Structure formats: C-alpha cells, structure tokens
C-alpha cells in the first residue's frame, strides 16, 4: 500500500499562536512527510507491503514500526486541531472524564503532567480501554495505544522537540498549556463514540 501525506484540514498559519506557521510547515511538511516516505520505502518487499496502516502499527517493530507509528500518530495529532475548536467536551465523553478523573480541570492537569514529565521524545495519550474506562499514558518515541494494545486512542500530544521548539524553545509546559486552545473536542468525541 502506498501511503500519502493527509491534507491538513486548515491553513498552515491557522493554529497560531498556539502552534505557529513555521512549526506546522516543519512538523507537517517535513517530519510527517519524511515518516510517510520512509514507510513507503521500508515496507517494499516485506509482509507489510499491502497491509493497511493500523495492521502495520499493531504488528510491526523496529524501524518499520517507528515510521508507521509516527505516520499514524501525526495523522491523529494534526486532525485533532482546529482554529475554531469545540473548547470543552460534553455528553458521554464529559461524563466519562468526570467518572475517571473527577472533573474536566483535573483531567487536563493530569494529562498535562504526563505530557510535560515524559522524558525525551514521545507522546502523551488519552485512550479508551476495552472495558470503556479512560486512561492516560506516556509512550516513548513512536509508541501509541494501538501498538501497546492498551485501547482506542482519543488524544495524542506530541512532545518530540520538533513539535514545539520553534514556538517555545525549551518551554514544553507552555506548549502543552496552549495545546488545549486548539484541540477540537468535537473530533475527540467522535473518536470516543466510534465514528472515526
Ligand atoms: Mn512529531
């Protein structure tokens, strides 16, 4: 299967000031594209040559997984943002957040701590477990809940330095705080109820 760079659902400058134009051009236009191109090259002649992306993410390891995981992770990441986001969850997702974390505010604090304290490069995830609970995890490098078989990913916060250095330099906590300003809870709710 030949994978392609998904189109952004907004302009490269639309997420500023939370994530600036230069960062989107670099992160989406260079890093994400490189993962796509690497993956297409790496799967040629392997058992994953005609597999869909989720199968590769679930079953591969080593360098193929590193690139497949990053293609999958960046797809969820860039599709989660909007210049006009739904700023808070509601309905069944809000109920689940309250049940699992106490309140929306406590959830944001716990998730933010996971993103800020992750050592080195990786991702903070909110995911839905098989029994319907919500959980937060830290995954190194290209890791995600699909590969680790922990659940259905709902939110992925990229804390590789390439995702925030042009805007924030070493201030990862500021990036994570502003992440909430562009996260579209409509997209997260659709994942939660299984529409996407
Ligand atoms: Mn990234």
Question: If you had to describe this structure to a student in words, what would you say it looks like?
Answer:
The protein is mostly helical. A three-stranded antiparallel beta sheet has the order 2-1-3. The chain is globular and about 50 Å long. The protein has two domains: 21-79, Fe,Mn superoxide dismutase (SOD) domain (Helix Hairpins), CATH 1.10.287; 91-192, 3-Layer(bab) Sandwich (minor pseudopilin epsh fold). The two termini are 21 Å apart. Helices cover 48% and strands 11% of the residues. It is built from eight helices and three strands; from the N terminus they run H-H-H-H-H-E-E-E-H-H-H. The site of manganese (II) ion has 7 residues, from helix 1.
CA-CA gap between termini: 21 Å
Bound molecules: manganese (II) ion
The secondary structure category is: mainly alpha
Instruction: Quote the CATH topology of the largest domain.
Output: minor pseudopilin epsh fold
| Order of helical and strand elements | HHHHHEEEHHH
Average pLDDT number: 97
- The appropriate CATH architecture of the largest domain is 3-Layer(bab) Sandwich
Helix content: 40-55%
CATH class of the largest domain: Alpha Beta
Rg, nearest Å: 16 Å
* Beta-strand content: 5-15%
Domain unit count? 2
Tally of DSSP β-strands: 3
Major sheet size, sense and barrel closure: 3 strands, antiparallel
Q: In the CATH hierarchy, what is the superfamily of the largest domain?
A: Iron/manganese superoxide dismutase, C-terminal domain
Low-confidence stretches: none
Number of helices: 8
Strand order in the largest sheet? 2-1-3
